[in-house]
Amino acid sequence: MKVDQIIMDLDGCVYLGDHPINGSPQAIKKLRDKGVKIRFLTNNATKTREDYKNKLSKMGIPVESNDILTSGSATAIYLKKKFGETNIYPIGGKALIEELSREGHKIVEWNKADFVVVCLDFDINYDKLLNATRAVMTGAKLIATNRDPTVPSENGFMPGAGAIVSAIECATGTKAFLVGKPSKVILEIASSYWNFKDNVVMIVGDRLDTDILAGNEMNWITVLVLSGATKIDDLKKENGQKMKPKVIVRDLLDLANRWDEILKNLGE
Ligand SMILES: [Mg+2]
């Protein structure tokens, strides 16, 4: 078995908050030295690709910004492909607005919006929920960049974009269209953006209900790291085949150290 591409999750996989997880910069270097191309894909749209590039570089992980996709940038690319340049009322910070604008979308008031795009917004307030609700009730489509219930941090879990999406769904009675993991949409965007074609792709992440579920849907090799949202006890619960990872490792360093053995076990 030879793996050409690794798609790597960030939160809970490469770092927790601002702290790299045990040996992750060395692990990434080791994997690159074995000839594997590494790309980063995060559901977290609170930063731009350039922000993530800088964050990773500071941790000793050099990367180009076009080797990073967020659920924000993937949403911008998806909407452009499907509908052209659109009018959007965003719930999210500067990073979301920057990613949407980069693809030519216009940021507008709620009553001019064709789409409400939601990501984790640290400045969420009642007015924003009200505007989003009004927009959706008058015909705008509700798009969730992701619906992660939580984001792991060095101080425990924080409420994620999913908590905000749910509030708008509750008010409007409308189910959001999901772009981020576990939706195949983001993986198909990633596949064409990075031109995977016949490549053997491995996806590495810390969540069964996003990284692993989406990767299995794509028939990619799924690798669970136990350094984030999923603990060993969670695996004992009945999660079904769809959320079953092909490979389980402690963290990225464990994956890099056991690389040859893991590939051998994967066989053909
Ligand atoms: Mg994660």
The count of DSSP E runs of length 2 or more, i.e. the number of strands, is 15
Poorly predicted ranges (pLDDT <50, ≥5 residues)?
none
The global form is: globular
DSSP helical segment count: 11
Task: Give the cofactors and ligands.
Answer: magnesium ion
> Which range best describes the helical content: under 10%, 10-25%, 25-40%, 40-55%, 55-70% or over 70%?
25-40%
Average pLDDT figure: 95
Main sheet? 6 strands, parallel
Strand content: 15-25%
Give the full name of the CATH homologous superfamily of the largest domain: HAD superfamily/HAD-like
Cα end-to-end separation: 5 Å
Would you summarize the structure shown here?
This protein is an alpha/beta fold and 268 residues long.
Description:
The chain is an alpha/beta fold. It has two domains: 5-43 and 182-266, HAD superfamily/HAD-like (Rossmann fold), CATH 3.40.50; 73-178, 3-Layer(aba) Sandwich (Rossmann fold), CATH 3.40.50.1000. The protein contains eleven helices and 15 strands. The protein has helices at 24-33, 49-58, 71-83, 94-102, 126-137, 161-172, 184-193, 208-217, 232-236, 252-257, 259-266; strands spanning 5-8, 15-16, 19-20, 37-42, 68-70, 87-91, 106-107, 115-118, 141-144, 150-153, 156-159, 177-178, 201-205, 221-225, 247-249. The strands form four sheets. A six-stranded parallel sheet has the order 5-4-1-13-14-15, with helices on both faces. Helix 8 (208-217) links the parallel strand 13 and strand 14 (221-225). Helix 3 (71-83) runs parallel beside helix 4 (94-102) and helix 5 (126-137) crosses helix 6. The longest helix is centred in the first third of the chain and has 13 residues, at 71-83. The mean pLDDT is 95. Magnesium ion (MG) is lined by residues 9, 11-13, 205-207, 228. Magnesium ion (MG) binds at residues 9, 11-13, 205-207, 228.
